[in-house]
Design a protein that fits this description.
The complex is a heterodimer of chains A (about 300) and B (about 280).
Chain A (H helix, E strand, L loop, with lengths): L1 H14 L13 H22 L1 E3 L4 E4 L3 H7 L2 H32 L4 H12 L5 H12 L5 H8 L14 H13 L1 H13 L2 H9 L4 H12 L1 H15 L4 H6 L11 H10 L4 H30 L2
Antiparallel strand pairs in A: 1-2
Chain B lengths: L14 H28 L3 H6 L12 H8 L3 H32 L5 H11 L8 H10 L6 H5 L7 H12 L3 H8 L4 H9 L4 H17 L2 H6 L8 H9 L8 H35 L1
Classes of the chains: A mainly alpha (about 300), B mainly alpha (about 280).
Chain lengths: ~300, ~280
């Protein structure tokens, strides 16, 4: 054993394998170049832009926090922040709970369970454009599926996408339909990790199913629950396509999320400095949300 | 999904099972119904739908709308664009990630640790935080409305590097050392010895990248503003805004089904890889 390890160490030395050599960096250089020019540089350039008055063609004067001051005096932007939080609140708990339910219900080795798992994950592979196209034709008054169902019962269908109280809920339902596969799969993976003998012990003790679920299964997947929450919060904070394609942010900006606001000011009104500032605010919000969730999960682990 | 312990571990059926069963059936219907609705609309002739939207519930069902797609419209061009962009992105990502993954996992060079941490930090940066600056840079370089312009930003995604580094680390070092003894160069070891062993990871990353690229909406929407440069995702979006004035509901629905079908077929064949990659990207 030691002889072989020794020998290997000598080979490595002879080949110079472990000595730092700048030529080795040639392998990572292509990626690092792309990373530096298309991710790192734009990240800092974006911060720089947010301190300037800038349009499509030119970088104007430095105005310090001027753009940020403007943003937080802009009722529409504040509305967009509120909308985004509302949307996250509508979708993330629902995604986590439905995902968990499906994982528990479909964690079996039967053919039917396999088919249903595929079904619930299948919508996740569609693009946002197709998803919104499908769901518009669920919600719209004419040709809409819900309208047809309502009329079967002789009821007048509400105009889901133009009603101020319903529009965001309609977008949330669309999003849950689109995204529920991932939380389900993450919970399923966690359930597979629970050792089977724990359940055998519980069965020997004649523990009821509910009791087994509450005192064995749920505690074992607590970390996954936090993980799902973080992943979904970060993802749903970036709502854009559904709102842009289904309602254009209306009615009265009530479904306008932060990203749609960024798109509108930076790429339609070409107030680039202001758009950059708004995107920094979004970035900060996402980081804070992820951090809080992470800290909460750490504390939960040490009773 | 093998040897799954049932969450109960008990075989008896109780009233709880029926609640679970009923809920599962309800959710399955909720998943299926919208898709079936769209497919049935796509099989109806426009004039019949215009006269009576409820005609969707009974025959005749026809495939005319699908035939019309092949005869005209931008959809075929958009599909071609999407194929070029997705294939380009996938190959670019696999190449850069494999090279960098090998470098970070196996080779020593000054600053390796720090650089890897910086790259990992890149995983936390959302697209929106860099998109305004990126758009300006691409304007200056005149890259908008080109294939490179749509492809390049995705290549900076750090997930592939992270995945490939993990994978290379898991390969026993004895293999490199044996090759070193044969006086093989670094690149030859990478190309001939190690790369073939990473095929499962290449497949997972490749299919995942293809899917993300095919479905990407935000960057192509901003960068590809000319109709003939639209990807399928952007093109489909451009049509649904004014569907009432366009060629009709049945035709629009047929295009939706037609556009969704390729990716759905990919999903049916590569489901395992896609689930693995999407879970992996979420967990990191």
């Amino acid at each position: 054993m030691t002889d072989r390890a020794d020998q290997r160490a000598r080979w490595r030395e002879a080949a110079g394998a472990d000595a730092p050599d700048w030529r080795n960096a040639l392998f990572v250089a292509p990626y690092l170049f792309v990373f530096a020019t298309l991710l790192a540089f734009p990240l800092f350039w974006g911060v720089w832009l947010s301190f300037h008055k800038a349009d499509f063609f030119s970088l104007g004067p430095f105005i310090g926090f001027g753009n940020y001051v403007r943003l937080f005096h802009d009722a529409v932007f504040l509305q967009a922040i509120e909308n985004t939080f509302y949307f996250v609140l509508l979708t993330v708990p629902a995604l986590a709970l439905i995902g968990l339910f499906l994982a528990l219900a479909l964690n079996a080795n039967t053919r039917l369970a396999t088919i249903l798992r595929s079904l619930f994950f299948s919508s996740s592979v569609l693009s946002v454009t197709i998803v919104t196209l499908i769901w518009r034709f669920v919600f719209i008054p004419q040709y809409g599926m819900l309208a047809a169902i309502f009329s079967l019962f002789g009821a007048e269908p509400p105009a889901f996408l133009t009603d101020p109280n319903l529009a965001m809920i309609a977008i949330a339902i669309t999003t849950i339909w689109w995204c529920v596969g991932l939380p389900m799969m993450l919970f399923l993976a966690a359930l597979q990790q629970i050792p089977g003998d724990v359940y055998e012990a519980a069965a020997l003790d004649n523990a009821s199913r509910w009791r087994t679920l509450v005192s064995i299964t749920l505690p074992s997947i607590r970390r996954t629950f936090v993980l799902v929450a973080i992943v979904e919060i970060v993802m749903q904070f970036q709502l854009f396509g559904q709102a842009w394609l289904m309602t254009r942010g209306g009615p009265n900006n009530l479904t306008r999320p932060i990203v749609l606001h960024i798109y509108d000011i930076a790429f339609r009104r070409w107030d680039v400095g202001l758009g950059a500032a708004a995107s920094e605010v979004l970035f900060a919000l996402i980081l804070v949300a992820a951090m809080l969730q992470y800290l909460a999960s750490r504390r939960g682990d040490e009773p | 999904m093998t040897s799954a312990p049932s969450y109960s571990g008990v075989k008896r059926r109780g009233p709880g099972d029926y609640v679970v069963l009923a809920l599962t059936i309800a959710l399955s219907l909720a998943m299926l119904a919208p898709a079936l609705w769209v497919i049935s609309l796509s099989l109806k002739e426009n004039h019949e739908l215009m006269a009576n939207p409820n005609s969707v519930f009974h025959p005749p069902y026809v495939i005319d709308n699908y035939l019309n797609i092949i005869n005209g419209g931008g959809v075929l061009r958009w599909i071609l664009n999407s194929v070029i962009v997705s294939v380009g992105t996938t190959f670019g990502t696999l190449l850069l990630s494999s090279l960098a993954g090998y470098g970070f996992a196996r080779l020593n060079f000054p600053g390796r640790g720090v650089l890897f941490v910086i790259v990992l930090f890149g995983l936390a940066v959302p697209e929106q935080a860099v998109i305004v600056a990126r758009h300006q840079i691409f304007s200056i370089l005149k890259l908008h409305n080109t294939y490179q312009g749509i492809i390049l930003p995705s290549l900076s995604n750090a997930f592939g590097v992270f995945l490939m580094t993990q994978y290379f680390r898991a390969i026993p070092k004895e293999l490199d050392e044996a090759a070193l003894l044969d006086n093989a160069g670094r690149f030859k070891i990478f190309w001939k010895v190690l790369l073939p062993l990473t095929l499962p990871a290449q497949a997972t990353l490749g299919i995942f990248t293809f899917l993300l690229s095919w479905n990407d909406y935000f960057w192509p929407l901003i960068s590809a503003t000319r109709k003939e440069m639209y990807t399928l995702t952007v093109g489909m979006a451009s049509m649904q805004v004014n569907f009432a004035q366009s060629e009709g509901v049945g035709f629009l629905m047929a295009q939706a089904v037609f556009a969704g079908a390729p990716i759905f077929i990919v999903y049916l064949f590569f489901q395992k890889y896609i689930v693995t990659a999407m879970s992996g990207a979420a967990v990191r």
